[in-house]
Amino acid sequence: MTINKDEARRLLHESNLRATAPRVAVLQILASSRTPLSHTEVLELLGETDWDPATIYRNLVKLRDAGVAPVVSRVEGIDRYSLVRNQHDEHRHPHFICEDCGQIACLPAELTASMLLEGPWANSIQSAMVQLRGECPDCLEPPP
Ligand SMILES: [Zn+2]
Ligand SMILES: [Zn+2]
Predict the structure, then answer these.
(1) Which of 36, 41, 48, 77 has its CA at 20 to 30 Å from residue 128's CA atom?
(2) How many A from CA of 96 to the centre of ligand 2?
(3) CA 138 to centroid of ligand 1, rounded, Å
(4) Where along the chain is Zn(2+) bound (predicted)?
(5) Residue 141: nearest ligand to its CA?
(6) CATH at 55
């Protein structure tokens, strides 16, 4: 999903954040990505800008602290941020990191649903960050 600058500004205002140019740009990048993004990945997607990496990082932290883009993955100790537009979009599904190409993928929520929704732990679990690793289907050599 992509959002335009006006939508990004409105989203920021709703969260009581000032709509600075880098913040709007970061928000648009996060909105256009299906998977959570790290600081480095946001920089790559931004391309050439006048903003230095530290500025972008500070804006990610601002968005995180405001609850707009929480860290939903910590694969390899790298924080990845995802835009949360409603309560149901918190990436409570497992994430898969490919050790070959470094791609991160969102896996079906069913893999953890039985643990999150049923049984004695259902009320105890408030957030989930399940990380799986291996080789993604694109990198896996087809069997001979
Ligand atoms: Zn891969
Ligand atoms: Zn996800």
Answers:
(1) 41
(2) 9
(3) 6
(4) 98, 101, 136, 139
(5) 1
(6) 1.10.10.10
- Report yes or no on 142 lying in a domain: no
Q: What is the pLDDT of residues 55-70, one digit of tens each?
A: 999 999 999 999 899 8
Span of 60-64, 78-82, 117-121, 135-139 with lowest mean pLDDT: 117-121
Distance 89 CA to ligand 2 centre (A): 9
| Residues 71 and 127 both lie in one domain | no
Long-range CB contacts (within 8 A, 24+) of 17-24? 17/62, 17/63, 17/66, 17/68, 20/59, 22/49, 22/51, 22/55, 22/56, 22/59, 23/59, 23/62, 23/63
Longest dimension (CA), the chain: 57
- Whether 68 and 45 map to the same domain: the answer is yes
Could you give the angle at the alpha carbon of 123 between the alpha carbons of 119 and 126, nearest 5°?
125
